[in-house]
From TrEMBL:
GO terms for cellular component: cytosol. It comes from Swaminathania salitolerans. It catalyses: thymidine + ATP = dTMP + ADP + H(+). InterPro entries: P-loop_NTPase (IPR027417), Thymidine_kinase (IPR001267). This is Thymidine kinase. Pfam families: TK. It comes from the Bacteria.
C-alpha cells in the first residue's frame, strides 16, 4: 500500500519544524533527515519552540530509507543541486510507493517571494498540505513571507533572525539593491 505524504510549508518562524516533529512518533521506526548543507542545525531537527530530535544529515537519498515506517525531512528547499544528488521529489515518490509514510517541512517561497520549485512539486503530490504563517516582525499580524535584512547575493543561505525576518504583505520588502 502506498504511504502518505504530509507537507508543512510557510515562511521562516512559522512553526514548520515543530509541526514536523509532532507529526510522528519519534521512535526507532522513524528516521529524521536534514540537509547536510544546513550546518546551522547540525545533526538534528530543531524548532525554536525548544523541540529537537537527532537527524541524519544527507546530500542524497539514504539507501536504507525503505527500512523505516516514517521519514521526516526538514528544510526540503535545501535538498537541491548542488547540495543534493538526484531529485528529492522522485526519491520521495519512490519511497511512498514502497509504503513509507513521509512528512516534509520547507519554505514555500524565498526572500524575494519566489516559489521554491521542490516545495511546489511536493505540494502537487501531497496527501495533506499544511500552510503555516508566522507573526510579522514589524506589526505582529499573520506573516506569509520571509524578508532578508541585507543583500548577500545567495538564494540559499542558512541563517536565523540575524539575517531573516517574518513579514506580512504590508511590511515585506526586498533587501536594498536586490
Ligand atoms: N516572527 C515570529 N513569528 C512566529 N513565531 C516566532 C517568530 N519568531 C520566533 N518565533 C518562535 O518560533 C516558533 C516556531 O519555530 P520553528 O518551529 O523553528 O519554525 P520554522 O521551522 O517554521 O522556522 C514559534 O512557535 C515561536 O515561538
Ligand atoms: C527565506 C530564505 C531562507 N533561507 C534559509 C534560512 C534558514 O537557514 C532556512 C529556513 O529555516 P527555517 O527552519 O524555515 O526557519 O532557509 C534561504 O536559504 N533562502 C531564503 O530565501
Amino acid at each position: 500500500m502506498r504511504g502518505t505524504l504530509t507537507v508543512f510549508a510557510g515562511p521562516m518562524f512559522a512553526g514548520k519544524s515543530a509541526r514536523l516533529l509532532q507529526s510522528a512518533s519519534l521512535d526507532a521506526a522513524t528516521l529524521c533527515l536534514s540537509p547536510a548543507f544546513d550546518t546551522r542545525s547540525g545533526a538534528s531537527i530543531h524548532s525554536r519552540t525548544g523541540l529537537t530530535h537527532p537527524a541524519r544529515p544527507v546530500s542524497a537519498w539514504p539507501d536504507d530509507a525503505g527500512a523505516y515506517r516514517h521519514l521526516l525531512l526538514d528544510e526540503a528547499h535545501f535538498m537541491v543541486a548542488p547540495h543534493y544528488r538526484g531529485d528529492v521529489v522522485d526519491d520521495i515518490r519512490n519511497a511512498l510507493s514502497q509504503g513509507v509514510t513521509i512528512s516534509v517541512a520547507g519554505l514555500d517561497t524565498d526572500y524575494l517571494r519566489e516559489a521554491f520549485d521542490v516545495m511546489t512539486r511536493l505540494r502537487g503530490c501531497a496527501d495533506r498540505f499544511v500552510s503555516l504563517k508566522a507573526r510579522c516582525h514589524c506589526c505582529g499580524s499573520p506573516a506569509r513571507w520571509t524578508a532578508k535584512k541585507r543583500r548577500t547575493g545567495h538564494k540559499l543561505e542558512a541563517g536565523d533572525d540575524d539575517l531573516y525576518e517574518a513579514r506580512c504583505d504590508a511590511h515585506w520588502s526586498a533587501p536594498e539593491g536586490a
